[in-house]
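Researcher: Next entry in the queue.
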Amino acid sequence: MFRLSNLIKSVTEGKKERSLNGSIVIWNFTNRCNLACHHCYSYADPNSEDFLTTETVLETIPELKKAGVRFVIFSGGEPLIRRDIFDIADAMRSEGIMTYLSTNGLYVSEKNVDRIIETFNYIGISIDGIEEVHDRFRGMNGAYRKSLDAISLIQKHGGNAGIRFTLTNETKESFYPIFELAESIGVDKIYISHLVYSGRGLENLKIDISKEERREYVEFMIDKAFEYVEEGRGIDIVTGNMEMDALLFLEKFAQRYPHLKEEMAKRLVRWGGNSAGVKLGNIDWLGRVKPDPFFPFVIGNITERPFSEIWCDDKNEMLGRLRERPRRLGGICSECGVIDVCNGGSRSRAYAIFGDLWAEDPSCYLNDEERRGL
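Model: Structure for this entry, 374 residues:
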């Protein structure tokens, strides 16, 4: 994740950068879901059964802590479908692990909203377009209204809720209105996720946007982040799955604050770009461990081997390659002067298009001059 707003505020105000001393795990606790989203990477199915037992999950939590995991994002399917989800989150919090919830919001109600707010440090609600677009993309009429109702309910009860938006050819017509919506309802965060070719996303490569469109949208997001910070609006902008955004961001930051460009550049290098297998991991609903949720290969399974042994295995060649700085990649990445910032982008997209895990990210929109260096 690339936290534009946080970087702007911390550097311009001379504050220490926000950093996580440890790793983040996105855990898909269930493959059950009440929606059928076009971009879903987990092939979520409303009729599937939960594979991991409560006991298995709880036994894994100390292993997460042992491996240096400090942050778990609860995902799915729809994580609120699991009846034990609050017990699991409580057990993580007791081990000092922060918990975030990623949900479509349809199971947020008056009965559980206070428990959700007490349990999770943050709640992200998926909104992938203004009403008709969202309902079509999510595969359910009325889903948009129900998701907005969930945000309103969380806010009413004093919780923090944000919008999660996936940018695709199907949703792009709602890109600008999403920011208008966020401003009108006063959410705390807008998270814009670029499409990664995996799951249903792999079957629908045609739904991705062009590089020219992507650049236009990224420039708008960056300008909005500056606007929100400079006007004192409490809306954070975060992008995901397109680490090249950091280089375009640096260009615009330097135009506004040339005397702070060097400090920002240093922070971006320390941030390190794509962190799959480095500070980001995934456990799916079958217990399989991957470097990120979209990754085409599995590095182990918590039902067969403790998570800490899987994650800290210094003999795993794939993890070793992912953790190299800079990564040894082909194509335009092999001679890129800014790879120490983006870290080569998505390995999943590279594999989907080129059949090579170590090829360039085909979605990189930077021009030759921008790739030459900071």
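Model: The radius of gyration is 20 Å.
Researcher: Noted, moving on.
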